[in-house]
């Protein structure tokens, strides 16, 4: 089974209904030896800006010499882009090998048997739960993808993993982790109504489900309703809450649009690669961080970048980034420089000049408003 066949198998599972809850994920990870327990997570939830914030944090930590895994979803062009270490995708061979391993476990077959069977047939068996372990309640595609990430990042001995929730928070497969060092909450608005909540307060409570006892939390202020929920949950969990106030972000020059000129597939998707031609520039101050210049497009990106900088400042101030096995101290200037170079694909990405065409992933009312402002 090559990586294309492996992806087809996962895609077949993707036709299942979304099933929130952690019991299947707990059972699956236990069967795999709970690799997630040996990793340190920066867990990111919210409605908009999760992927960009993850990219900013990952790039800043990597620039400081850490080995940083990043798991985001969904994939845009290639499933492998969901799994990166210091900006590099998982290889085709590794992706296929991990999928083969997961199917072998679930179906009670050897890797050789799984490798030689069409992936779509395997996905049908997994979907119907007719063989192997967990046969009464087989994992969803997203749960398998998340399990793959945990196994891969443990095997690659990552210092930190920046982990994006898939849907919501409390019942999301990523929320099985218990070794979070920081929870990050991006802007929250009404999205997936009826699935993770029927109104803004309920949605905020679902997102706040990633907050762990005693673990610090940083959020970008989303208004009174969200703030009240976060304060309540943090108080109950004895977690300190830090808030990024949009008023502390001082724009010196706004509006920057990027167009990719590097046609290498990993450079197009990878947030820290690719040559970009730009119009104007986004330059801003945030607290002690002065004259931060962003390559990322969109009027919303300075806010995502400020949230990332605040998250990193918190990790630094609490000495969480101090590791006796790591050479040197965390340098915020290296973080600023790395964040400034990040280009997030499909966020106001110019595809062509003639005709003038931009591509953006806005998919809810709040994101559409930000797109219009840009």
* Radius of gyration using CA atoms only: 20 Å
Write the CATH homologous superfamily. Mur-like, catalytic domain
Name the CATH class: Alpha Beta
Strand content: 15-25%
Classification by helices and strands:
alpha/beta
Q: Average pLDDT value?
A: 83
The CATH architecture classification is 3-Layer(aba) Sandwich
Range of helix content: 25-40%
Shape category: globular
Number of domains: 1
Order of H and E elements? HHEHEEEHHHHEEHEHEEEHEEEHHEEH
Contiguous low-pLDDT stretches (5 residues minimum) are 256-278
* Secondary structure tally, helices: 13
Main traits of this protein?
single chain, 374 residues, alpha/beta, UDP-N-acetylmuramoyl-L-alanine:D-glutamate ligase, eight-stranded mixed beta sheet, four-stranded mixed beta sheet, 13 helices, 15 strands, 18% strand, globular
Task: Explain what you see.
By secondary structure, this protein is of the alpha/beta class. It has one domain: UDP-N-acetylmuramoyl-L-alanine:D-glutamate ligase (3-Layer(aba) Sandwich), CATH 3.40.1190. It has 13 helices and 15 strands. It has helices at 3-13, 23-31, 50-63, 92-107, 111-115, 119-128, 141-155, 200-207, 224-237, 265-269, 301-317, 332-341, 365-373; strands at 41-45, 68-71, 83-85, 88-89, 160-164, 180-185, 217-220, 241-244, 249-253, 257-260, 276-279, 282-286, 289-294, 349-353, 356-359. Strands 4-3-2-5-1-6-7-8 form an eight-stranded mixed β-sheet, with helices on both faces. Strands 11-10-14-15 form a four-stranded mixed β-sheet, with no helix packed on it. A three-stranded antiparallel β-sheet has the order 9-12-13. Helix 1 runs parallel beside helix 6 (119-128), helix 3 (50-63) crosses helix 12 (332-341) and helix 11 (301-317) runs antiparallel to helix 12 (332-341). Mean pLDDT is 83; it is low at 256-278.
